[in-house]
Design goal:
Blueprint: H1 7-21, E1 33-39, E2 47-50, H2 51-55, H3 59-64, E3 68-70, E4 78-81, E5 86-89, H4 95-99, E6 105-113, E7 118-127, E8 135-136, E9 140-146, E10 154-156, E11 160-161, E12 170-175, E13 181-187, E14 193-199, E15 210-219, E16 226-236, E17 244-245, E18 249-255, E19 263-266, E20 269-270, E21 281-285, H5 289-294, E22 295-297, E23 303-306, E24 317-325, E25 331-341, E26 349-355, E27 358-360, E28 367-374, E29 384-387, E30 394-400, E31 403-408, E32 419-428, E33 435-445, E34 453-454, E35 458-464, E36 471-475, E37 478-479, E38 489-493, H6 503-506, E39 507-509, E40 515-518, E41 529-538, E42 545-555
């Protein structure tokens, strides 16, 4: 009898699986980041770097380890040519579109190597190209100046926009040559430059009631790109008071989820003049495109409202310059600093990079999935926790920041559970908590780790002598807990222990179902009982088998007439 697994074959089998399936074993992180930079607007297919060389890997290794580039949200900018190890641009990248005002513009990616699993963090800095010229929102800027203004008085002018960043954005302003004004470019704390027209010599309305100048904005490119606007200066002969705001600086905080139309703040200016000259009109002044798109101002009431919903993840603060003009053309200015407050308005996202949904049994530490998680919110709203259900034989391992690997905790046994439904839950720590779930089903594939098992260790069959040949005398039966070919059982007779026993001419076995047949008529008087072994083997590779004993008892039939031994009948 042999129901125990033979030890040696099983060990060999597992070793073979480890080699064949190339087990993915985790490596710890070493915190390395590779950094590359590339100019924006380069054609797709442009060479960025040779990854193999930079990682110190042999040429075949990237291919052998199925190296790939991962990035958040499936947005792929880079492509890896596994053969050459070259990293190339997958598409033409526009810095203005990808990063807007953010400088430097850094796109994050990861390099994933398998067997063993290894992550490398990567950064691609997109360098600005001076592909946009400064632009004024209006072609003509109207400036009304009282002839009583003293030389040295400064008049702020509207600014030009430039979509580029850094030195490629507006650096300086100039004004066409004239005898009355010079231009001064101020550096603001927000990094922008602001033009101010400074009066050099008192104006005389009788001599010149209007003055037309050309304002030019220059960016820092080489050569610089420019944008121009006309400044129409109208000289007024009235002598009144300019409007004055209650505060020069207003500071407001606005939650990013405030609805369109919400009141942000009401500004208020006073003018000592009554009548027409006292009626004030409020408007934006020196405000960026972003301000004009996001806010609107009521010219009469000074109410500033949201024109679109704000997004903390996109723009975190705004600076609004507001002008109050009286009917006479004199104006006063104030600044509103708006801070956008983060609200937990984004649920975490999960990006599956590798999913192996069919894993072999008996192999611990097998990688099932590799995925990244992200949450664009900031602070606690963007911190995440990643879990799976309790009591599953799988564990989550944080591989590098925000990248997890799901591995088997121990060897799985298909015969006890062949399928697992795993729910990966990613929760942020914001208020309210937002979560994302991702369900995966992992099936455990069979390995031939069970030998067929006979229903009995010994079978005893009784046959009445003088049977007809080919009589079905009984059956043996074995089952195998594996599946497929690993569970297909075939039966055979073992050679008898007693070499004198002509077993092959006595019984036969049906290889498929274990039915036993007496081949010829048995004679109790010649053979009262006999014993043999049967074997059940599966079709696995290598095959596993077990054995059982079969004992056949021949039953006596009254087939011989009595005869008298003494005295002899013929005597
Ligand atoms: C700005 O332009 C003026 C006039 O051309 C020039 O004198 C000045 O040096 C420039 N400033 C900068 C910072 O380039
Ligand atoms: C503004 O900054 C530029 C460069 O940072 C510098 O050259 C210039 O002198 C500054 N101008 C003022 C008025 O501070
Ligand atoms: C897994 O989910 C599928 C579909 O919902 C279900 O049919 C199956 O029974 C589940 N398996 C387990 C082991 O829970
Ligand atoms: C994932 O599975 C859980 C438990 O079976 C179920 O409640 C949930 O709705 C599923 N989620 C998705 C996204 O299918």
């Amino acid at each position: 009898m042999e129901t125990q697994l033979p030890k040696a074959p099983q060990k060999r089998q597992v070793t073979a699986i480890i080699i064949v399936l190339i087990l993915l074993i985790l490596w710890e992180v070493d915190g390395m980041t590779i950094k590359y930079s590339v100019l924006e607007e380069r054609e797709s297919g442009s060479y960025v770097a040779n990854l193999a060389k930079d990682l110190g890997l042999g040429l075949g290794e990237l291919e052998a380890r199925d190296a790939r580039i991962l990035s958040k949200g499936n947005q792929q900018y880079l492509q890896l040519e596994q053969k050459s190890g070259n990293l190339i641009l997958k598409e033409k990248l526009d810095r203005e579109e990808l990063c807007s005002d953010t400088d430097p513009c850094i796109l994050h990616f990861q390099v994933l190597l398998k067997s063993p699993v290894h992550f490398i963090q990567g950064e691609l800095q997109l360098l600005d190209v001076n592909d946009h010229a400064p632009e004024f929102l209006e072609n003509e800027i109207l400036l009304k100046i009282s002839e009583s203004s003293h030389p040295g008085t400064a008049f702020p002018l509207k600014i030009a926009q430039d979509l580029d960043v850094g030195s490629n954005t507006v650096q300086n302003y100039t004004i066409s040559t004239n005898s009355r004004f010079h231009l001064f470019t101020l550096n603001h704390s927000d990094g922008r430059r602001y033009p101010e027209l400074v009066l050099d010599k008192a104006l005389d309305r009788e001599e010149q009631s209007e003055l037309r100048l050309t304002l030019t904005a220059l960016d820092g490119g080489s050569p610089p790109r420019t944008g121009t606007a006309q400044v129409l200066i109208v000289v007024l002969d009235i002598n009144d008071n300019a409007p004055e705001f209650a505060q020069l600086l207003y500071e407001v905080q606005v939650p990013e989820n405030s609805p369109v139309g919400s009141l942000v703040i009401t500004v208020f200016a006073t003018d000592l003049d009554a009548g027409t000259y006292g009626e004030l009109s409020y408007s934006f002044f020196q405000s960026s495109n972003q301000v004009i798109q996001a806010f609107e101002i009521n010219a009469v009431t000074g109410e500033i409202r949201l024109k679109k919903t704000l997004d903390f993840e996109e723009i975190r603060s705004y600076r609004l310059e507001i002008e109050a003009s009286d009917g006479g053309g004199l104006s006063g200015k104030c600044t509103i600093a708006i801070e956008v407050m983060d609200v937990n308005d984004n649920a975490p996202e999960l990006t599956m990079s590798v999913l192996i949904s069919d894993i072999p049994e008996n192999t611990p530490d097998t990688v099932v999935a590799i995925f990244g998680i992200s949450d664009p919110d900031s602070g606690e709203n963007g911190k995440m926790m990643c879990t799976i259900q309790d009591h599953l034989p799988f564990v989550l391992k944080l591989t590098v920041e925000n990248f997890y690997t799901l591995v088997t905790e121990r060897a799985l046994d298909r015969e006890s559970q062949a399928e697992y439904n795993i729910t990966i839950t990613v929760t942020d720590l914001g208020t309210p908590r937002l979560k994302t779930q991702h369900n995966i089903t992992v099936t455990v594939s069979d390995v031939n780790d069970n030998a067929p098992a006979f229903s009995q260790t010994t079978y005893t069959l009784r046959v009445r002598e003088n049977n007809s040949p080919a009589l079905h005398i009984g059956s043996v039966s074995a089952t195998d807990r594996d599946s497929g070919a690993n569970a297909q059982v075939t039966y055979s007779l073992l050679p008898p222990a007693d070499p004198q026993l002509p077993l092959a001419s006595l019984v036969s076995i049906n290889a498929d179902n274990g039915q036993l047949f007496a081949l010829r008529s048995l004679d109790y008087e010649a053979l009262r009982a006999f014993e043999f072994g049967v074997r059940a083997a599966d079709r696995g590779s290598p095959a596993l088998s077990s054995q059982a004993r079969v004992r056949v008892l021949v039953l006596d039939d009254n087939d011989n007439a009595p005869f008298v031994l003494y005295p002899p009948q013929n005597g």
